[in-house]
Amino acid sequence: HQVVNHLEGHLQRLPAGDNRSRAILRQMQQDEAQHQTTALHAGGRELPAAVKKLMGLTSRIMTSTAYRI
């Protein structure tokens, strides 16, 4: 779920005419949503809130670092 939301943020920042990147990100969203469904059906569980929060923070750090590089 977090990755799908993260990719949505990237989609929102894309220039309107960048259809190629938009298509790639949408496919990535679909793939990630399918991974979640597969994991839950295989017995996976939702992560604790603290872990989700840490992952979100880590994601923001990685994204801002990549942007600056």
Descriptive tags:
mainly alpha; flat; 3 helices; 69 residues; 0% strand
Summarize the structure.
With about 70 residues, this protein is mainly α. The protein contains three helices and no strands.
Write the topology of this structure.
Elements (H helix, E strand, L loop, with lengths): L1 H12 L5 H23 L7 H20 L1
Helix pairs in contact: 1-2
Structural class: mainly alpha
Count of helices?
A: 3
Main sheet attributes: strand count, strand direction, barrel closure: none
Give average pLDDT, whole number.
91
Low-confidence spans: none
Description of the molecule:
With 69 residues, the chain is an all-alpha fold. The protein has helices at residues 2-13, 19-41, 49-68. The two termini are 27 Å apart.
